[in-house]
Every structure is written in C-alpha cells, then in structure tokens.
Amino acid sequence: MKIAVCAKQVPESGAPKRIDPATRRLDRSVEAGLNPFDVHAVEEALRVKEKVAEAEVVLVSLGPERTLEALRKALAMGADRAVLVSDEAAVGSDLGPTSLVLAKAIERESPDLVLFGQQSADGEGAVLWAAVAERLRLPLVSQAAELALEDGRVVVKRQTEFGYDRIEAPLPCVVAVSDAINEPRYPSLKGIMGAKSKPQEVLALADLGVEPSLAGEQGSGTEVVGLGDPPPRGDTLRIEDDGSAAEKVVEFLAARKLL
Amino acid sequence: MKTLVFLEHHEGELVRGSLGVLSKASSLDGDVAGIVAGSGVRDLAPGAGEYGAATVYVADDPRLEAPLPQPRVDVLATLVREQGFQAVLFAQSVLAADVAAGLAARLDAGLNWDLVDLKQEDGRLIGTRPALADSLYVEVGWSSEPALATFRTGSFEAQATGGTAQVEEIEVELEDFSTRATMLEQAHEERSGPSIEDADVVVAGGRGLGSPDNFALLEGLAKALGGAVAATRAVVDAGWYPYAAQVGQTGRTVSPKLYIACGISGAIQHKVGMQGSGTIVAINKDPNAPIFEFCDLGVVGDLHQIVPKLTELVRARKA
C-alpha cells in the first residue's frame, strides 16, 4: 500500500511574519519548518503503515528547494521518501495551480491513500485537499478526527459544526486530517541521522508535463490588489471588581442595547 | 453581474450565514440567484427570496441527502456553466469550503477565501481578506471568471427585504467519483440553544474556569442572555467541553453581537476566532491577560463570583 502525504514548509511560529510590499507575497526568507498541521498527517500515515503488511509513505510537496529541510523532519519521523516540485515558474501559485501541480505529482505515484493536514499555518487556508481530490477525481473526506482502514476503504469520524459524522470512502481516496486526530511522535535520533540519506527527489514542472503558463501568478485566478490596516477597535473600558462588577457589566451592556 | 450564492441548510432551515452572503450579494449591482441542493428541500427555496434572491435553483435528489461536498460540486459546476454566473459566493463552513475548492478546480476559477467584505469597483469585484492573524487586511481580486469566494462567519447581516424568488428545479447529474464517499451516520446536534455561529450572544470559557463543572456557570449566563456557550482550544483538548463549541484558529470563527470571555487569556489561536465580535467583554483575574488589549470592557476579577451575579441581574432584567 502506498500513502502520499502532502506537506509544506511554513515560517516558524516564532519568526516575524510580513508581507513583502513589492511582491505582495509572504516573506518566506525567515526561519522555516514543516507546517505543524501536516505533522499530524505524517503521523497518521505512519500509524496506517504500522498496521498493514507492506506500506510506503511518500511526502509530496511544492515549494522552494529549501523545503527539503522541512520534509526531512517528516522523513526523520519515519516517512520513506520525498518528492518536491520546485520550479521558479510555480512561485506565486494560488489554489488553482497549486492543486494542479500537486495532483500531477500525486498521480505519478498512484497512491492508495492521500493525506493532508487541516490547514497551512501561513496562508491560513484550509481548502487545498478538495481541489486536489477534484483534479484526481477521487473521493474526499475532510476534517477527519479518526481514521480507520478496513477492507479497502477508510472509515472516518469527521468533525463538523454540528458534531461528528461517520463517513466511508473506498480506496484510493483523499483524507484531510484534523490536528485532533493524533499526538505526533518526535523523531528518534536514529531517524534524524537516517533522514538525510532517504530518497529525496526534486522535480520541475516539465517533469510533470505542466505548462509554465498554467502555474505561478500567470496560472492563478486570484490576485492581490492592495494592502491595508484592519479597522481599529474602540477604546477598552477597564474595571477592577470591588463587588459591583456584575452591576457595571449590566449597565455597560444596557448602554449598548445588548440586553 | 450574475451572482450565485450557495445556500446551505441544516435540519430544515437555511443557514443564517448563507442568507447574510445573499443579502450582501443583492446589495451589489446585478442579478442574484441562490442554489439549494439537498433532498426534500423544495420548501426552503422561497424563503431565500426574502433575502434578495431573484431566482432560487433547487437541486432536489436523494443522492444529495447527506451534506457531502463532491455531489454539490457537480450540481454547481453544471449550473454555473449553463447560466454563465460571473461570481459564486459561499458562507464559510466545513461543507462550503470543500464545495468551493472543488468547484474552483473543476472550473479553473480563482477562489479567495476567508473574506470579510466584498465591493464593486469599476465593475470589478474586490474582496477584503484579513491576513497574518488579522494584523493586515489584504484587498484581493480575481483574474478569472467566475470569481469564487467564501466569507468568514458573521461578515454580513441577513436582511429580510421581503422579495419573492422565482423557483426553478434543475436536473441533477453526478460524476461517478462524487458519490463514492458515503455518510454512515450523520451528526445530530444535541443542544437546545442556538449554535455558536448563529448566536447573537456567545459566552466562552477558558482554563480560568478551573474545572469542567464550572461550564454550568456559563451555561446559566448564556441561557439568561439567549446565547450559546463556546470554549477555547485548551479546555476542549482537556476534554472539558465538546469540540463543536471550540472557537479559534482550529475551531469555529464567530462574530456575535456580544462575546463574553470568561477565564480566557486571549492567545492568538483564540483571538482569530472571535475578534470580529461586535462587543467583547472579558472577565479574567490576571490583569496582564492579552485579552484585555482587544476587548471593549475588561473586568479584572474572579469569574466565579461575577458570573453568577451577572446571570441573576440579567434574569431579573429580562423577567
């Protein structure tokens, strides 16, 4: 069985985040690591692998070549190899071209199961899997809080606004896992030492037969047209409770016609 | 401009967020239509007319019974192609996000998500998208047609204007792969009050509650105010309260008229899920809690003392 895990590199949570005014894109020159939400997908893939007789976990990513550094963390956790699509022409890709390129890279592997994390920590997006599943023409289940593999199908417990659904889908399929699904392992020292020597393939768009005009900003259907400040909040009224705080809150709410 | 709004429904009612997006769409120039997809949903269609839809398309089919995204992508893709919609708008939800992204791939159309506003400038659509934990507002546009967008919960008020919609039933043709994921068991809400995304008042609790039992205090206050109870990730992770009530980056985004944060420090993970609220009241005994920097009324004190009293006062006032 083959499991593909889509993973990306994002700026470290402590790193200063800014949008480059010239390119209007996130400045990615800062210290970066594996998207923490993707770590849960890697962990889930490893857990599936441990339960079946023979399985391979392949990481699939799109990004600059330094993304390999982030992918090595997943290799250290136990993933078997990594495929990175890295191409100048893909810089600035939005959902459309990103899903196209990833789908092509995944197709080349023909995995039984494709896993995604719940969102990216930088773009704050949580939609990529649905676009990739559409391009692969595979069944999709998102927001998986539990994943079980039985008789060539997955059974997923899925979190929604209304509680938990149980959904099944036959393999091959795409599943996006929530970060509640597991507690990821830490890479062992042996894993870290071995990660560098695991296969890491870097592909260009041409290797996937993707025309450069379909990727990057050219291939994107959205654009940034300006940057601005969020609307300011009014002043904060602050009180210390001297026993009358509840009355003061009621007065405050009443004055704002909230009662 | 021809705009289509995806009308989500739950337990026999159109979701208020969808109606808010519909109201917004009808405030812009052009023709606005809605689409309701489900099983036994014909009766829901006319209601959308009141919120500005001139036409409501109904895709009524047993295969659309479960709220799964892929069959809905098929329905929308066909409709958009046949009717030539230039914009397709969604109120953000677990279902809508998957439908919107699937549709974007199917139609090779640009999708801007998590928008909080939309306007027309020289005939072009411009959306507003908060970025970098909402510290920056990015103006976004589309170079594709149709323009696809999802809107953050509570971005627009649903405004009934009393119009009537023409209801049109459409044929449902589904792709093979779209029906392969199937619902074994659908979630049913077991709560009496409004959901946290629909409620006008949200009373939220964090670690400062001290123990799970103290959520009863918040439930009492929420009931008195006609609101719903929410929780931070920390207490959901600790098993104190169900995930469905989690507000924040990995939970729900809410924007009620009133948000009362009890024993919540105001970490960024939580902030992004509630900072769009109209009025924010924070009760926390730590005077240095970050939440005091983005609330309207900050009360430094013990919530275990204040909340029961507040509940009493609200009850007395409403009686």
Reconstruct the topology from this structure:
The complex is a heterodimer of chains A (259) and B (319).
Chain A: E1 2-6, E2 9-11, E3 19-20, E4 25-26, E5 32-34, H1 36-51, E6 56-62, H2 67-77, E7 81-85, H3 95-109, E8 113-116, H4 128-136, E9 140-150, E10 153-160, E11 163-170, E12 173-177, H5 189-195, E13 200-203, E14 222-228, E15 237-240, H6 245-255
Parallel strand pairs in A: 1-6, 1-8, 6-7, 7-13, 8-12, 9-12
Antiparallel strand pairs in A: 2-5, 3-4, 9-10, 10-11
Chain B: E1 2-7, E2 9-10, E3 13-14, H1 16-27, E4 31-38, H2 45-49, E5 55-60, H3 69-83, E6 87-91, H4 94-107, E7 111-115, E8 117-121, E9 124-131, E10 136-142, E11 147-151, E12 166-169, E13 182-185, E14 201-205, H5 215-225, E15 228-231, H6 233-237, E16 258-262, H7 268-274, E17 279-284, E18 297-300, H8 303-318
Parallel strand pairs in B: 1-4, 1-6, 4-5, 5-12, 6-11, 7-11, 14-15, 14-16, 16-17, 17-18
Antiparallel strand pairs in B: 2-3, 8-9, 9-10
Helix pairs in contact in B: 3-4, 5-8
Task: Give a quick summary of the entry.
By secondary structure, chain A is α/β, with parallel strands linked by helices. Chain A contains 6 helices and 15 strands. Chain A is 27% helix and 30% strand.
